[in-house]
Every structure is written in C-alpha cells, then in structure tokens.
Amino acid sequence: MYEEIYIKYSPEQENLISILHDIQDSHPQHYISEEAIREVSEYLRIPVSHIQGVLTFYTMYSTRPRGKYIIRLCESPPCFLAGSEKILAILLRVLGVKLGETTGDGLFTLELCACLGVCGNAPVMMISDTVYGDLNEEKIISIIEKYQGGQA
Amino acid sequence: MKFYRMTVLIGIDDQSLKAGAREIEALLNQELNRSQLTDEVNVLEAGSLGFFGTGVTLMVYPGQVTYVNVKLEDIPEIVEEHFLKGRQVSRLTMKPSLTRGYDFNYRRRIVLDNSGLINPEDIEEYIGTGGYEAWEKALLEMKPGEIVEEVKQSGLRGRGGAGFPTGLKWSFTAPLEADQKYFVINADEGEPGTFKDRLIMEGDPHKLLEGLMISCYAVGATKAYIYIRGEYSLCIERLRQAIEQAHEYGLLGKNIFDSGFNLDIEIKVGAGAYVCGEETALIESMEGKRGQPRSKPPFPGVKGAWQKPTVVNNVETIANIPAILRNGAEWFQGFGTDKCTGTKVYTILGDVMMPGLCEVDMGTTLRTIIEQYGGGVKNNRKFKAALVGGAAGVFLPNSLLDVKMDYNNLREYSAVLGSGAILVMNEDADMVDMLWSVIRFFRHESCGKCTPCAKGNELLFEIINEVRQGRGREEDLQEMVRISEAMQQTSFCALGQSLLMPIKSAVDNFRQDFLKRMK
After folding, report:
1. Cis peptide, bond prior to residue B297, ω within 30 of zero
2. Would you say domain A69-148 falls under CATH 3.40.30.10?
3. CATH number of the domain that B41 lies in?
4. Closest chain A residue to B448, measured at CA
5. What is the 8-class DSSP label of residue B93?
6. In this model, does residue B421 exceed pLDDT 90?
7. Which of A14, A71, A136 to substitute to test the interface with B, most B CBs within 10 Å?
C-alpha cells in the first residue's frame, strides 16, 4: 500500500521515523492507522510494539484521525509571555472545539506544541507547514476564514 | 561578472514567505523589466535580513535603505521613485528611531557574515565569498591531526549550550581505529527562544556543509548526518539542495579533489521531541528509536551511532570551522574573551523594540545586547528580568545586566550562557507565571526514562500550580529548590538536571513576586 514511500527508503530501522512522517503526510487525516503500523512492521521487520513506542514518543505523530489542517499553537515561555493563553482561548472559541479535538466539518484539529523557533514573532502557531506569527484575534479570524474558504 | 547600479536584497524566510515574498519578488522583476532596469538593478534572494514582525523586507544597496512591510501595491512606486528617480519612498522605510545607529555588526561576524547578503540557494555565491577554500586547503594541504590541533588552539567551544571545547571533543575520536566513524550535526534546535541555528541554515547552508566536511576529515568520519527538527521545513529544503549542489561541484562524494577521501552527508528529520537535543537521545532517534538518552560512558565519541565512534556538534559550532581554517586559530582568538574565544549568536526576544538576532563577541554584556541590538525595552517600560539560555536558562535581574557574558564568567553568578536565547521581560511580567510556564515545558518534554525527572517534574508542577493559584506557602519555594537540586544530582540527562537553574534564579532574584501570591 505504501510502495511509493518504500521506494525512497531501504528496509532498515533507521528509516522508521522518515517512513512514519511520509505515511502520516500521505493520509488525508494526518494520522498513522493500526493497519499502517502492521504494514511498516512487516516491511522493516521490526515488532509492532517498537513502532507503537516510537510513534507515541514524538509529538508530531498521531494515532487518531485528525482534521485536514492541524493547528499547533506554541505554549513555550516566549509565546506564553506574549499572551499565548489568550490566543488559545480565542482559538477554542473561534473553532468551537476542545484541545486536541477536530472541528465538525473535519477541517481543523487544535493542538499545543513546544517552541517552533519563530519567537521573534511570538505568539506563534503553525497550520500544516506554515507559520503564523504576531497573532491577535483579528488575525486569527482572518486566517481561519481563509482556510475555511479553501484559499490556503 | 556583471556590475549593477543597485542591488536589492529580499529577505526570504518563513515569515516573509507567508507575507507573500515570492509574489512580491515576481512583481518586482516584472516592474524592473517594464522600466528597462534589469541591467541596472539586481534582485537577490537572501536569508532572513535580521528583522522580525516586519513582513516582507527589502534592503537596497548602496545606502542600506530598508523597506519593511512591503505590499504588492508598493512595488511600482518603489521602482518608479527609488530605482528610476533615486528618491526613497520614505513612508515604507524602517522608522529612523529603529535604524538610527543600528549596527548589524557585520565587521565582527563569523558564522553569519554572509547571512542576508548572499543567495543561500546558490553555491556560486558562497564560493564567491571564499567559500569551500578552507575545505580544499584542509583536504589537500593539511593532515587531520593538524586540523584538530588548529581547532584546539582556536579555543572554540560547543555552542549548543554546554560549552565543551570542540577540539578536545574531536581528539577523543580522531585517533580511534574503526571501520566506520560518524559525524552528526545537532540541528534539533528546540530550546525555547532559540532560533539561531535555523537562521544559519536558512541564510548560509553551505557554510554549515563546509564546516561539516572539514570536521569529518579531521576525525576520520566518512558518513555524516544532519539531524534537523521536523518543524524546520525551509532549512531541510535548503540543506538538501545545498548537498546536491556540493555533489555536482565534486565537493562531496568519492575521492574528493583526488585526495582519496570519501564523504556522504545525509539529512535525518526529527519528529518533535525536545530531549533529542541531548546527543545520545539524538543518536537513538537517528537509529529509528524513541529518543531517550543513553547511559554515559561510553561516550558517543567512542561508541555512538550504531556503536561506532560518533562526534555530535551543534550547527553554530561547526559553522565557525571554515573561518578558523581559512584565517587561523590566532585570528579566531582575536574575538571574544581570554577563556571564551570567538563570537556568539544570540536571539533577542520578548518585550524589546526589535526582536531578532545578533552575532557579537563573546563577553558582550547583556545590556549591550538588549539595548544596542534589541533596541531596548519596548513601550518605555522598565527592564525586569531576562531569561538567558532558554527554558533551561536563568532569570537574570537588573543587577547582572553588566556582566560579561561567556561560558566561564556567567558561571560565577550561577548562570549559564546556554543556547544564547535572551527573553526580555518588562516590569509587568510576573515571575510566578513565567516559572510556571518553564516547569510546564519541562514536564511535557521529560522523556519518562528516569524517575527523578519524570516524577520530579510532576511534583514541581503541582507545587507551582498551587502557588500560582494563591494556595502556596513560603516553604514551597524552598521545596521546589530542594526537589530540583535532587533532580540535578540524580537525573539521567541534562533535561532533568536543568530545572534547578530557572527555579533557583526565579525564587532567589524575584522572591517578592512569589510572596505576593501567598497573601
């Protein structure tokens, strides 16, 4: 099922993290299913338990289906100082979800993350691969609307 | 080579790309073409120009005129007025109050000397600045042992945080006989507030590659990895491209410059774990495992990746190597202090006028960095504290603003230089909240391998929560220090050992903030 990904990587354990990244990126719901874990286990000839362990260790992976866009709000000290708690409250309200949940339309999943290294523009969030900084309510609403309108 | 009347640098980084830098660049070229200025005005893509929160930034030479927050509709005006008629569009230039006297310190830059000035995606531009000369010299004129000796002489120390002498680290691995040795660049920059390595990799990726090539030859490693955190997508892209270009130019691969030396560089992408910045955890992660630290000894220099001798160095450390080889150890000693030579890249953020970065001599005071390079505390507020060195850093009060910052000197004040992040807080900041945020970070990032760190973080978080909610007692402050001291003595790796510093410095220097919450 993941032949296109396997072509890029030899079946060795050192490629596990890259393979998991690619599998997750290729899934429209940005997660790694149990079925995928079993497949990778066969390809790399390493136990399912090892893959589960790796998968749950790193914050970028998810074992649950997520939205089309993953919003990751930084909560590290520099963003905290710049008001990330307020930004979180705004996001929760605007999206109408709880932390870690996905919006009803399947578009957004809201997560927290550690420093993204863009602290010059704190508070910062990342949607998919794009970083948005200097956040305020107005900006957040316009960014979310843009994604809802499918322009992102 | 072609000469132009004017050169326009367009800063390409994560922020400017989001603000439409590519579209603006395209329109700029189109407008120049329309005004028949393409032979006179040269548009170059550079890495970050060093400003933040300024959208798309253009810097025009001669004159270093800086246009900020440039929008598409501004381009025809800039082309017509400035490039054609020679009149600056003053409504778009950076406020004089910000640029007056602002000094990028290019004269004293070593690792960022090209950043913002050359196109990082073009190897020719790097070569044009003298790039890869040091690699050629190393490979054709020097013995590996001489390089290790030169680096030792230079006094270069690891820029990742611990400040361990680089040449000494290499000297443990260089003489070992092994069928395979590895060199690993730690680009898993995760210390909160730190983005210096990102700017080095985005702004001058070939410098890191050249440094890495020389380092590999010095210790006898024929395979190198750059371990980059997964969130740094532009760095990953630029380094992949740079590696490809280096192969095309015969700087990498088999029998480089007919010297008989082979070298390959591969990029490994992380998946989000702060602890992977610890070198043995990073190696575990590279091998496709959970990023949990290993027991030391054996040290990675003897038994590292796949049990082979492996040197792990930080991006900034290795970006110093080409200049050291080109100019010599003595030249490098001309920077910094007696015990800490060279420069340091700092990221300045928080309540300052101009968040951003600077590269200055080791030993520069906190005051100079904040006032001169950060533009001072913003909105006329008073300085209260600076968290220096990231979450694993120290809350420094006003009284230490004039301490010369280097690895040795700060230690006398129970402080560390760490990664070089400087988070400035004004008088409105509350240290209880800040410390809460720091402890929350460590609690989340603790890898769970050893009990002192896993359990200690939980305990600390419980206590700081109580204090924050007004249910704390004065004894709790001593208890937090006691727990973090125990963690420092017994934790498996630097992560658990790090909490003592932020906790002790916050409690000692800003005790009033804590007591206020207890009334």
Report:
1. yes
2. yes
3. 3.40.30.10
4. A57
5. B
6. yes
7. A14
